[in-house]
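#struct-queue
[09:14] JT: dropping the first one here, sequence first, then the structure tokens:
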Amino acid sequence: MWRCKECSVYCPNRYELLKHLRLQHRHRQSYSCPHLNCPCSFKTLNALQIHLSRVHPKQACQEILELESFSCAQCSCKSLSNERDFFMHVGLHLKSHEIVTCMFRNCTFKTNIYGTFHSHKNRKHTPHTISDLKPGIVTTKNLFSQESSDANNDTLCPDDSAVGSISTSPCTDVDMRKTLTDVIEQNFASALLKLEHFAHVPGAKIDEFLEELHCLSSASHPLSVNIIETVLQKHGSTLDKLVIEEVATALSASHPLLKAIEKGGSLSTSYLRNKFYREHFNVIEPVEYVLDKRLSKSFQYVPILKTLQELFKIKHFVEKVVENHQIHKTSEETGVKVTYKSFYDGSHFKENYFLSCGELRILLTLYIDDFEVCNPLGTSRRKHKLCGIYWTLSNLHPASQSALSSIYLTIMCKSDDVKNYGYERIMQPLLQDVITLEEDGIFVPLLGKCVKGTIQVVAADNLSAHSLAGFNESFSAGNICRVCTATRSEIQVTDVRSGSFPLRTKDLHNSHVNSAHQNGSSCCGVKRQCVITKNLAHFSVQTGYPPDLMHDVFEGIVPVELAHCLSLMISKKYFTLDLLNKCILGFPYKWSDKTNKPCMIPHTFSKTIGGNAHENWALIRFLPFIIGHLVPEDEMAWQILMVLKDIIELLVAPVHTEDSIAYLESKISEHRKRYQDLFPNVQLFPKHHFLEHYPSVIRKFGPVVGLWTMRFEAKHSFFKHIIRLSNCFKNVPLSLSSKHQLMISYHMRASSFEKPILEMTNVSSVPVDVLERDIVQSIEQKCPGTIEVHMTRSVKTKGVSFKTGMLVVHGSNSGLPDFGKIVHIFIIQERLFFFTKRLCGWYSEHHRAFELTVCPTKARDLVELSDLADDYPLADYSVGSVRMVTLKRYVLV
């Protein structure tokens, strides 16, 4: 007997299990191996099937069989062998018009109507597992025995007497066939949706493919007749030729796929497919709002309340939200040492009574940005420039928020329309929905109550943030900061640390808004009241617009300072630009470092080297390894870049303490002094000033890396790809938003918002006693009684890959992190362990990296994932004759 790990349904053999997975779980992000002692998981069902054939070819059944028997509360029947038989049995009571109480926990629904019960079950309790049933319905019994473990017993059949009376009911068989037909049709429709809206295959081409498929299927009628005759002859039966013809015709006509793709079928044309998606996949369609009917000006709005209602119907989603809420609530009550891990730890959250009252609140993070869907340098420049407003739910774990499928669209319009009609007109339907969310909330059936919420923050670049918040959109003069009242000229001579710049408090900002309104001109950089603040009761400008690390640092300060410092070092003939580019291209990047390796610096660079955020981050991180040996240690330009590298490591750290914030503040002050001393004639950018606010920003908002726009920017690529392939520019916002909502409906069907804790594709089961002695001792100490472990060469957890040969940080010595090189990766009792060879790290100030040597004691350690000081793996590189490693982010030790 094979048990599905996803829903606990039993299947008689491997073939039936794979068929069950294809029908019921084809939308999952990964599939676990059904063998109970195998921790492997796979992205596709085909990969799982290959794994079963290669790794478990002789294992006919699972090693441990814990089967459930189901008891009926209406009668004395207690031997129903599986969930399907149980609900078929309940159906018999309903067809006899007996009143049946819902068997799921915390549900008091009653009915005596068969259709009403199944509608209730599908709406309120789908998906579900057997653990959701009320106590007493399911009884677990251990069937592990010598007979069940015999390899010759390929299946384990349930008690025939328990299912015999049910399987003979013609009404039940009809219902089962109808359900299976619907499942097959919907899964096929889902596959077509994936082709059309993920792979972006044109609808006309899919129509042609389905037409050809139907023709080929119809042409196979003689083959079906021949097969039926062969089977009948094999079993010694004969039927009239006309009867066989009729059977073959009936089989062909009743096949759900053929019925769906035949002429006039539900999936036969692009129009009918889209209609099917909207009827069966809970597609939340965009609503068009007309700005000017005469000029055909409009924008698309995806109702945010409807999206939230659909999300909160998903049990797994609600569980994750509640779990995350309980974690933060518990940490507040325990009163542990002050650390900043998320927005929940910042002062803005704690001082907002609506958010921090202890009740579960829906926290929305908005993102707003303009982007080009056509070539920004071509003839269509600015012609189809769009403004997109996205949102994500801050209640989820950061790893879940970063998935592009968890970033939802709410408004899509043309950028020119925003300028002509203003944000207040464009955002009106969105703000009306959020007002309802603040005042009334949405009803969550799984919690049995209404949950209120609001917009937590708005993530945006400086231009979009100033435009939406009502500040001046020019940064060349005047008051250029939305945190304080500093002017462009003042930031050249005074830093934030001096305390010379008054912070924008709520009262001060309101006085500036009133003055700007009365005088008709800006006051201290304020032009008008923020559109969101004007409508919402629990949102303010001071607490709603955090700075963006990506635009301020990686696409602002870093490329500019690299250009100035590299130009100076090239002029001093430490190296040439050609040599630098040769070294950048020839550097042996490893593992994940290859993904974002920096590009060549253009020969035409002057004030900036350009490049995107990932490339600039990688360049300044690996620059010490690439050209560090060519630059003298006392070179001032080099020191500026190395201090900037220290600042970046602190800014991208996921956890902060008061000590790390104070260290960041001192580094920013040092960097400013060095930069102005070396380049006295170069003016500081506004982004240099914004950087000086980051220490206080972390205290208010939590780690700034949790609020950057990096993942939101990646969402633009989806829309750019659609427009490039469709080449359709008629009502672009409608086309893009409609396709996006179909894509989101596919992900909602998957009901999986987090990747598996552990993902691996190849493991070996190894008895503990054959391992080396020090490994055995470590395992016995960490996990007493373990007799077998799983070994693998690579594993992925929460989106991060670990491989043998990588370095991990665990522990510290004299204030410096300890490194270990991964020798083996073990999975013990479903927990991830690394067996590491301890390395000694000596800090090199010039390289801002650690020189690695083998530990004199040659110690080796078994380290669990949760014990690591930083859960991001590193790679060591040869720098001359020395092995070195550089951190990617600051590590608290």
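[09:21] JT: and here's the second one, same format:
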Amino acid sequence: MLRTPAAIAGAALVTLMLVLAVIGPPIWGEAAARVDAGAILQGSSAAHPLGTDNLGRDLLARVLVASRYSLQLAIAAALIGAIAGIVLGALPSVLPLRAGRLVTGTVNALVAFPGLLLAMFTAVVAGLGARGAVLGIGAAIAPGFARLTQTLAASVARADYVAAARMLRVPRRRILARHVLPNIAEPLILNLTQALGGALLGLAGMSFLGLGVQPPDYDWGRLLFDGFGRIYIHPEVALGPAAAIALAGIGFNLLGDALARHAARTPAPSRAAEPRPRPVPDTEPEPGAVLDAAGLTVTFPGGVTPVREVSLTVRPGEIVGLVGESGSGKSLTAAAVGGLVPYPGTVHHERLRLCGEDMAGLSRERLGTSLAMVFQDPMASLNPALKIGGQLAEVAVVHQNATRDEARRRAVDRLGHVGLPEPGKQAGRHPHQLSGGMRQRAVIAMGLMGNPKLIIADEPTTALDVTVQRQILRLLRDVVDESGAGALFISHDIAVVGELCDRVVVMYAGRVVEELPVDRLAKDAAHPYTQALIASLPDMDTDRSLPLASIPGRQPAPAEVGFGCAFAPRCPLATARCTTDRPPLEPHGHDHRVACWEVS
């Protein structure tokens, strides 16, 4: 975590404040309380570096001693605000609709109310002093926590396991404590660190205004209030508490930011954690390849690695099929290539090149015209509020600096190129006015608005009927043949891949287990998983009196993958070695690679 100057500074400042809170009162407590009638209201001197107060007490000692009380009050206020906010924000996810709306409205009203006024109002109602100030700052912090909790809990509340718990009539408080809060705890804990800094500053402000700590007690804000009247004569008397407040607040905020960034990009260790990817790629760069990826790995916090050291190439004019069961990492591999892995996922690779250039160095304009992506659901790619032609034209305007008229003409031309009837008329329609096949053609046309060298098609025909599927597949083949671009076609249907693609890459549990030309798929497939996929595909000669062939067991979740071959528990050829050692992806004849210990 401590890899940046800001993180180091934040950790150092917080550590310093905590150390002062522990050792301050025992070491400097006597000096802070000692009254000296001969040193009243003095300025800076060798004996008193920050001067003295109206009773001759040393201000430096009082600032150091006040560290403990100031931090205690800040921690109490932050915890009160966090607990109240979390409870308030999580309630709408488990309450009935009307009650949930009432709580949501309350949260919205509190968020809109100025925090300082809310703190002052609460402090006045609760009574002047440290207790009122702590409650006031806690009340000011709570709406922010409530809004964050409400946003996080809303996504969890729609999960199937929450719906199942409701169906089973699990008590609401148990749903909240068992299903909702544990799944949103991490960002809330990180936010608490930053809230400590805000609470510290807020409490100092309350004491400075006379609404917080009252004599004879004192915190940094109270010391600042006492010294403010002398700031033009002896500014150092106010400098000490002001510096302590500022440094502590900055420290907690810097540390909170560092913790948040660290949690977002570093997965926690898991029992099935594997060694880091090899520093040297296991494949050499292929000259002329449109896509050249080696060691592509995608990780998420918690030790979840759904894509593991994937290496693949796509040549010009070639369609490479990426197949495997649902959850094998196909779509996430495509997202990693396109830079679309959702937060908080992180992508690591040993080599990732587009047309020989490192993709990390490509500009947005170059990437936007060289790479086209076609997704399974075209409605997820098209804005329902905008017309088709305008959305296609935006590509040329943003990435090619075309005028609106030029972009419009090119959009109509591309729509006609993909076989849409009356392309000028279709360009003036909204997505909901087109059929599913027409929308998918429009998305392909959007990708062709530039001059793509690589087309990534992520199950583009899954939601379409068989007739339209064939049309889209034929269109994709024609586009590749005509443009010379390479295509990565993702599907779980090995029969479709066998008809469309030139080469097939088989994935299982996030890894490539076999790669071979598609014309040798039926006879020369060597990996047991590939053979099982082919065997489970019925044809006209399949005996309908027998059950359909299937693969026993299930694919392991990303967090369950161990060191050996992930397919071993389902493989009839597995040996003891398969469960302990991961087989590398090695050549097995011309243009054929297999990852299996039992393939000779």
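[09:30] RK: nice, looked through the second one.
[09:31] RK: The radius of gyration is 32 Å.
[09:31] JT: good to know. The chain has a mean pLDDT of 85.
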